[in-house]
Amino acid sequence: MNRKKLCELGRSLILRLIGLTLLLLLIVQAAGFAVVRATIERNARAQIAQALDLDENVWRRLLEQNADKLRQGSALLAADYGFRSAVNSGDEETIQSVLENHGNRIGAAVTALLGTDLELRAVSLAGNMEAFPATLRALVPPLAAQPQGSQIAVMGGVPYQFVMVPLRAPVVIGWVLMGFPVNQPLADEMRQLLAVHVALVVKGEDGRAKVPVSTLPPGSLALLQREGVPSGELQTPEGILLARAIRLDSVGGEVQALLLRSVEEVLAPYRQLQVLLAIITVAGVMLFAVGTGLVAQRLTTPLRSLLAATQRLSRGEYDVPLEHTDRSDEIGNLARSFDHMRRDIAAQQTEVRRLAYWDRLTGLPNRERFREAVVLAIARSTGGAVPPNPLAVLTLDLDRFKHVNDVLGYSFGDRLLQAVAERLRQQVPSPDNMVARLGGNEFAVLLRGADAATAHATALRITQSFEEPLAFEDQTVDLSAGIGIACWPGDADDADTLLSRSEIAMYAAKRRLSGAQQYDASFDSASAQTLSLLSELRHAVEHHELRLYLQPKVPLHGQPGRAAEALVRWQHPQRGLVPPMQFIPFAEQTGFVRQLTLWMFEEVARLLADPRTQGLALRVSVNLSTRDLLDPELSTRLADILVRHGVPASAFCLEITESAIMDDPQRAEAMLNRLSEQGFKLSIDDFGTGYSSLAYLKRLPVHELKIDKSFVMGMETGEDDAMIVRSTIDLAHNLGLTVVAEGVETAAILERLRTLACDEAQGYHIARPLPVDDFLAWQEGQAHQVRQG
């Protein structure tokens, strides 16, 4: 990574540090600002609530003062001698005149004289007071009950405050009633006195609400008229107003006095403090950003140095010491620790590189190092040379080395490998060439500029050098080796192929005991064909390329029923009929034989369910491999197939080789017991060629022994084989088992087996393996011969 990128990373780190710290600071400041704002607003509301308590008391006091003013005016009228004389004389005109004059003088909207029976005698009305006589009936009783009190009444949608005083001369000769409107001047006075908005909400008997008196601005007033009395606050265009509703006892309608105070007016002084706090916060953030930037710059400068060091380490440059190791702070400690790590990594990488490319025991290059050398040699040989300079690879594998380890121990084997390595160095002294240990007791030699003749000469020298025994203290060891030779460019086009073919030639030399052997294409053609066949085997099962064949078994003593052995054939679309020996052994090695067994069992079950075979009483033998017996799900899978096709287990005979049983006797015995319990007939195949004991044979739930064909076919030429066959038949019958002989090639062998009391026979003399249709036709022909006989 260049210096420009490191600088960009440093700036990015500084920006991230500054950004993160500023973000945290802003979060804290914003949280504090929000808390302060919420606290101020909460305190402001509490302060307004206290102010509204005072406003309510003042409002009620103003109403009481108005009532006192009315009572004084009413008392003055009641004390007028002329008015009392007029009332006593019944002079209605005088009474009416006095009421009007006195009411106008004190500004009363209503002045009335009531009799002692509280009936209206005279009244002076200001404005439209048509509703007064109707309201009077509800208004007078509570005033008569409390002469010193007052009463609110709604007339014409306007609230009025009424008082009533007695008229005495000296006894009560009537009542004087006066009323003043609760109007705008009273609200204005409240506004001027306490800076509180007042609104009177009147709801008449018709249910409609009006606001005849208000100090609110037009927008707020319109909102109040539209939404009615608020529950606690009113959202207005001018801001939030906290409201206190005071219900006034009234007749003729409902009257509520609303006292409203603005939250914004209370918060206004605090807004300046909040602005000042915001300015202080911004200044603090800027100052903090500058300080953080300086600290980040001081931190990132050594970190950039450490980052550059990590880039050098990633490129494998461990020789450059780190900077800032002389600092005494935490950065210096980190730099010193990192530099110590650099030195340790350098030492470890040196050791790892040595272990990765060199053999610890012999000191020779290992397989990976040798391959790289071959790749490099091929690359250099093709670098402009026409024709290219040849080279050869010799692969060497010691004979009987495992025996040396088993007899003399691994420590002696290691010393032997070191001696072999030294001997190979002596035989290939040129520094242009290379001797390597590929692993175990396998070595390789790279000969640059060597053709086949030179390679053979070198291999011959190595072989001759092993003719001299290796002596260690009092122990002498004779060694030999198989050597494979492959030359470039004749035997391979690339390094990996060259190494592989040299190894193939080495295995060919060990098989032929020829010492040294050069690669030939015929050595691995069979292997390539086998790999191709195995890769196509799964495709064959999936695309129905396999065929079921049946080889008949015939009873030798007229036993009922018919029997056959099921065999598989592969009808390849290009190769034709593939022999079983070309794919069965490798299917067993790879485990794919389990799929072949299930395919065979499925096909046989389908055949046994076919109406053409149901009347034959046919029993079919199916071979099981070692992998089949060790499969814990085998019995379950076979049972599922039986159920699916509706055939009995007794229609099957499962053939198992002795070697399959002896690979894991306990597991094999458990599986055979389960299969026997299901009803399958069990047979030991190739009996006499394995390693089973009579004890196992007695314990296993076996019903049949099948004599190996090598003994049956040898009966004509060797009396020993005939004796083995006869002994096997007697042994099986003594154990209660039936005997099948395979490999019956002639009529003489068949007749000899009949004489020896063998139960069944199969072989080419009886019939070759047949496709299903041919097998059924053969069975029909046999039945016809029996009927003709």
Describe the structure.
This protein has 789 residues and is of the alpha/beta class. The chain folds into 4 domains: 46-271, 2-Layer Sandwich (Beta-Lactamase), CATH 3.30.450; 316-355, no CATH class; 362-520, 2-Layer Sandwich (Alpha-Beta Plaits); 545-788, TIM Barrel (Alpha-Beta Barrel), CATH 3.20.20. Helix content is 53%, strand content 22%. It has 25 helices and 28 strands. It has an 8-stranded mixed β-barrel, surrounded by 4 helices. The protein has a 6-stranded mixed beta sheet with strand order 2-1-5-4-3-10, with helices on both faces. Strands 7-6-11-9-8 form a 5-stranded antiparallel beta sheet, sandwiched between helices. Helix 1 (3-78) runs antiparallel to helix 7 (263-314) and helix 16 (593-608) packs parallel to helix 18. The model has no long low-confidence stretch (mean pLDDT 80).
Number of domains: 4
Radius of gyration computed on alpha carbons: 61 Å
Relative strand content = 15-25%
Q: How many strands, which pairing sense, and closed or not: the largest β-sheet?
A: 8 strands, mixed, barrel
Morphology call: elongated
Q: What structural class do the secondary elements suggest? A: alpha/beta
| CATH architecture label of the largest domain | Alpha-Beta Barrel
Lateral strand order in the biggest sheet: 19-20-22-23-24-25-26-27
Query: What is the H level of CATH, i.e. the homologous superfamily of the largest domain?
Result: EAL domain
Number of helical segments with 4 or more residues:
25
Just give the CATH class of the largest domain: Alpha Beta
- Amino- and carboxy-terminal Cα gap: 99 Å
| CATH fold topology of the largest domain | TIM Barrel
Number of strands: 28
Fraction of residues in helix: 40-55%
Low-confidence stretches: none
Kindly state the mean pLDDT as a whole number? 80
Protein name: Bifunctional diguanylate cyclase/phosphodiesterase
Pfam families: dCache_3, EAL, GGDEF, HAMP
Organism: Acidovorax facilis
Keywords: Membrane, Transmembrane, Transmembrane helix
